[in-house]
Amino acid sequence: MAGRLKDKYAIVGIGQTEFSKDSGRTTRALGVEAVRMAMVDAGLRADEVDGMLSYSGNDSTDSPTISSDLGIRLNFYMDVNGGGSSTEALIGLAMGAIEVGMCNTVAIFRAMNGYTEARIGGTGRQTPVFRGASLDQGIYGMNSAGQSFAPSFLRHMYEYGTTSEQVAHVKVAHSKHASNNPKAYYPARVTVEDVLNSRWITKPLHLLDCCVETDNGSALIVTSIERARDLKQMPAVIMGVAGRVSKPQAGYHWTRGPISRVAGHYAAPIVFGQAGIEHADVDVTGSYDAFTFTTTLQLEAYGYCAEGEGGDYVSSGIIELGGARPNNTSGGHLCEGYTHGIALVAENVRQLRHQADDYCPNWQNGEHTYDYSAGGCRQVKDVEITHNLGWASPPTGSSLIMRRP
Amino acid sequence: MAEYLGVKVDIASNDRARHEFLEAAGEGRLTLQKCVECQKLRYPIMTACPFCMSADSNWEEVSGKGTIYSYELVMHPIHPAYRERVPYPIVLVELDEQREYPTLDDGLRLVSSLVDGSGNPEDIEKVAINARVEVEFADLGDGLALPRFRLSDDVPEHELWRLPS
Ligand SMILES: [Zn+2]
Q1: What is the pTM of this model?
Q2: CB neighbours (10 Å) of residue B48?
Q3: A28 contact partners, CB below 8 Å, separation of at least 6
């Protein structure tokens, strides 16, 4: 039984600034450029967008400012606190806002100077103090995302024999994809040995198991399927969405197990239930790759392989371009750049349009060579359905299934 | 003023439960909240019972003995207090109390530090899943202390497992 809003909403525009480590601009400038690009992409004027949603970790510029710069009068906006997995959740909230009649068309953006201003885990420049919940973890030296996820990853290695070499294939695959993405911050292909020989950050994470931090603004536009039909681009039709689905006791998930089983386990029946499809129907996945392990554990939790077999799955070639179900064809957070997941949704919209912006001369017309050697194509052939697997942390994640009309 | 590794420890005056937890540690006791209704222990400090929603709890002293359930070995420090302490282990300790309860996958697990006899980070080569540990307390000043763990002489129930190097 499919969801009540299946096929009723679509993503009609995408916009992204360049990925850099030196934007030299405010988050306001990044946000405005991204939203403006998404509107131009969709063919929408300022008076045709009346809703706005954004997420941040106190490092963005709010919707009243971004919309004002573009001359947009809003009937609805929310600026929420949140990082990874917010994108898919806000797409669901945008659908709800439109469905109840609060507004008609919603721009969703994330604008961050993720390298030059607000780095994950902090810059080390603040005056340190241990207070409140930091006495549960931070005081023991567990402060960054990698430090907070690592024990879950290690437990998966212990329980199932997952190896560093297996998960290194995630970086290898995504670097292959990035080599065909002119926007990618790290376009160079790497090998399993490169990952294993990179320095340790926190065991079991090597440097190349961790994603890049970048400055970037990215935006998406959501509207009803009826309005979508009048717009410039082929709509990416939303089949199902799950937002910030959590494991029990998400604030301190260690006590409720298994800790190596991540939130996708709970999100999978929601999103697949709404979409009314099977795993075999999905052509491309976009599994959040803050770390090689996050992609691995999510693909497993969503049921793309059996529990414990994530290491085998990601090292089998399936997730690479040319494989049965490529993951993060842009190069993802590991190689393209990092904007808390929104770019992974934009990439799947491109895949559905058959307009991956690769090195094929006529990609704008959907013409691709399907030659995946470096500096070539990154469009997956005949994509019909994509699945985004958003990640905040082991106990929280979101999900989005889209299709071609 | 309470302090740990040269960094101020600032506990809000209205966070009574956290004061009580650290005060008990200052007396050398590891105490956890125990639900008055369903009698289950819980960690970290919470304001209601996650198993039955009861708002009432008492402090119960536990043995402080446990097993390393998972861990990581930090090689690249982030927090200024840990800059001089790398490499250091972070351990997830499963206490002997309330193991595999209320479900087989659940347990009382604490993120903590594994230290040697001098309070320095334990040799990372010695850290292993299934290794037996016992609590010790680091003085914070003001009568407060922070629970940490060290390796114990107990015989492990399961084979030790370390990340292959
Ligand atoms: Zn209770």
Answers
A1: 0.97
A2: 14
A3: A61, A65, A66, A69, A111
Chain mean position to CA A110: 11
Name residue, tokens 């803050």. Answer: A290
CB-CB under 8 Å, B161 with A131: no
Domain ranges in chain B are 8-151
Per-domain boundaries in chain A? 9-118+214-228, 236-403
Rounded to a whole number of angstroms, the distance between the first and last alpha carbons of chain B is: 42
Residue A58: predicted pLDDT = 78
- Tell me the residue type at B110: L
C-alpha separations of B55 from A261, B35, B44, B46 in Å? 29, 8, 15, 9
- Phi, psi angles (nearest 5°) of residue A170: -65, -45
Which residues on A lie below 8 Å from B80 (Cβ)? Answer: 124, 128
- In words, the CATH class of domain A9-118+214-228 is alpha beta
Whether B131 has its CB under 8 Å from any CB of chain A: the answer is no
Mean pLDDT of B23-38: 98
Q: Which residue, chain included where needed, has tokens 């850099």? A: A20
Distance from CA of A293 to the nearest CA of B (A): 14
Same fold, A9-118+214-228 and A236-403: yes
Residue A358 DSSP one-character state:
S
- Average the pLDDT over A93-122 and give the result: 92
**8 Å CB contact between A150 and A299:** no
Residue carrying the six token digits 């008076």: A47
Asked if residues A348 and A386 have their Cβ atoms less than 8 Å apart, the reply is yes
Average pLDDT over residues B23-36: 98
B150 neighbors B113 (Cβ within 8 angstroms): no
- Report CA-CA distances (Å) from B17 to A32, A147, A254, B23, B141: 46, 27, 21, 10, 18
Between chains, do B75 and A258 touch, taking CB under 8 Å as contact? Answer: no
Beta bridge partners of residue A287, listed in sequence order:
A389
CATH superfamily of A236-403: Thiolase/Chalcone synthase (3.40.47.10)
By the 8 A CB rule, do A313 and A302 touch?
Answer: no
Q: What is the pLDDT of residues A238-256, one digit of tens each?
A: 999 999 999 999 999 999 9
